Amino acid sequence: MPASPPASTERPVIAVLCERATDRPPGLDGLPADFRYCAADGLREAVRGARALMLWDFFSTAVRDVWADADALEWIHVTAAGVDTLLFDELRDSAVVVTNAHGVFDRPIAEYVLGAVIANAKDSLRSFELQRDRRWQHRETRSVLGAKALVVGTGAIGRETARLLRAAGLEVRGAGRVARGDDPDFGEIVASSNLPAEVGWADHLVIAAPLTAATRGLVDAAVLAAMRPGAHLVNVARGPIVDETALLAAVRDGRIAATLDVFDNEPLPPEHPLWDAPNVTVTAHMSGDVIGWRDTLGDQFATNVRRWLAGEPLLNIVDKKLGYIPTGDR
């Protein structure tokens, strides 16, 4: 989608929402624009007259609260792959273009998933416990060669995950909106709406889908009950895609294991039972955050700013109705 270039005599105003007003995203120095940096409590003033908005605080929901003040806004950029915390009806129905950080997190998240799969197969949690207790206990573990992984979400992150898992010797299928065969990355894609009938095939169920109305609560008690005994769930997408109450029951019963990077409420409260649940690995929503990721995000936005200023099409435009970039059926 082309963007209208600012008039040559003006420097457009770009508001930048940060977690703290003193934060400064890298890569923006030298761009011919006037940046207004703010935290959520200053967004209402910062967005007035601004033609673009960068969400450096990418989980913030503050845009909805100041929407009436966004009187000149043309473009919002979210420095994350998921845009679920940003979208609301008035924004979806507007002409404002939304872009995201498509491509930045694909490989890091795929590496995280591969690491989780290997750690599960090699019983790493138990090894850590034994080391802590100074106990020498010889055990046999499983190979990932020939194991089966079902990746829910066939967008860029899911595809990179599928490629890496295949390279490690796993058999992989995808689950998306539309079932089809002969996919170059997944081989076969099954319908995510039919997950209870599909998950029994997999040793590892990987959740890599965007959070939308169709995926919220997708992995419910029926899906978890249909997983094969001893299977492993990895969630690198959004917490609300998985029913946490049903998941907690499944891991407490010893039916499945889980590696969780995302949760319904973040940070995960210290009293939450998932911290101590058996066969559960908890990480702090960090699967895509490798060293240098902030620099990459800043450079990506700066590239789009230059395109915007030149009147060129913006990169990574999100379909606001779908809630993601439609590069394939998710």
Which helices and strands appear, and what pairs or packs with what?
Elements lengths: L12 E5 L16 E5 L4 H5 L4 E4 L6 H4 L9 E4 L10 H4 L4 E3 L6 H16 L2 H9 L15 E5 L3 H12 L3 E6 L3 E4 L3 E5 L3 H4 L5 E4 L13 H6 L4 E5 L8 H9 L3 E5 L19 E3 L10 H17 L21
Parallel strand pairs: 1-2, 1-3, 3-4, 4-5, 6-7, 6-10, 7-9, 10-11, 11-12, 12-13
Antiparallel strand pairs: 8-9
Describe it for me?
This protein has 330 residues and is an alpha/beta fold. The chain has 2 domains: 13-104 and 291-309, Rossmann fold, CATH 3.40.50; 106-282, Rossmann fold, CATH 3.40.50.720. Helix content is 26%, strand content 18%. The chain has an 8-stranded mixed β-sheet, covered by helices on one side. Helix 9 links the parallel strand 11 (231-235) and strand 12. The two termini are 22 Å apart. The model has no long low-confidence stretch (mean pLDDT 96). Pfam families: 2-Hacid_dh (PF00389), 2-Hacid_dh_C (PF02826). One of its GO terms (molecular function) is oxidoreductase activity, acting on the CH-OH group of donors, NAD or NADP as acceptor.
Strand order of the largest sheet: 8-9-7-6-10-11-12-13
What name goes with the CATH superfamily of the largest domain? NAD(P)-binding Rossmann-like Domain
Main CATH class of the largest domain? Alpha Beta
- Portion of residues in beta strands equals 15-25%
- Total domain modules: 2
From the N-terminal CA to the C-terminal CA, the straight-line distance is 22 Å
Going by helix content, strand content and strand pairing, the class is: alpha/beta
Instruction: Count the E strands.
Output: 13
Number of helices: 10
Shape: elongated
Residue share in helices?
25-40%
Unreliable residue runs = none
The Cα radius of gyration reads 21 Å
Provide mean pLDDT, rounded.
96
Keywords: NAD, Oxidoreductase
Family: Belongs to the D-isomer specific 2-hydroxyacid dehydrogenase family.
GO molecular function, one term: NAD binding
InterPro entries: D-isomer_2_OHA_DH_cat_dom, D-isomer_DH_NAD-bd, NAD(P)-bd_dom_sf
